[in-house]
Amino acid sequence: MKVKFIRWLGYIIPVIESSTRMKIYYYLLTQNRPVSIRKIQQDLGLSTPSLVLYHIRKLKEEGYITEVPEGYIVNKVILEDYIKIKSKIIPKSLFLSSFYITAILITAIFFFYSPKIAVIYSIIILAVGASISLYDYLNKRNRFEIIPKRKEKNL
Description:
Blueprint: E1 3-8, E2 11-16, H1 19-30, H2 37-44, H3 49-61, E3 65-68, E4 71-74, E5 82-85, E6 88-91, H4 92-113, H5 115-143
Antiparallel strand pairs: 1-2, 3-4, 5-6
């Protein structure tokens, strides 16, 4: 099974090539508990449990899901630019935007009551935001081998 990437609403999203397999994967990803084949079939409106089992086997072969006594769970998350909060999957950029907007509003409130506290709070928020961005950058950079450019010889 291969993973390809598509652009959707300005975001690059990894997509498993089979649309049924992708639906099963994303469904399992949003569940907070193991799910049985019959439940997957019913919730996704698939024709037979054997169809679900076929795609489950393919997902297991690739290491995306794991079988546990109660059903199946996601083993490998391929959504690196997304954050899972409970059963919701949101883009990291939306998460960071809401973080900064909330910080701006709180800073404005602090500034009204005490400018000194607002300055300290702003520095802390900027440090947290910079740390999150740096961590994300280093995480992505370490996934890829950096190949130095070759020097061209002038003959």
